[in-house]
Amino acid sequence: MRAAKGTPPFNEGTQSFCKNFSKSGKDYFALVYIVIQTSQIILTKKKGTPPQG
């Protein structure tokens, strides 16, 4: 997926996507982004941090 790598077409698409959104749409997009970030942090904690020492 090219979008996951943050290529310029994806960035331009995201900007126009946000511009076309209403404020509630932007809030929803931000909420989804926060959920994704949180889930990534949780997954990283589950994967790593083995008891050392």
Automatic annotation (TrEMBL):
Name under which the protein is recorded: Uncharacterized protein
UniProt source species: Stephania cephalantha
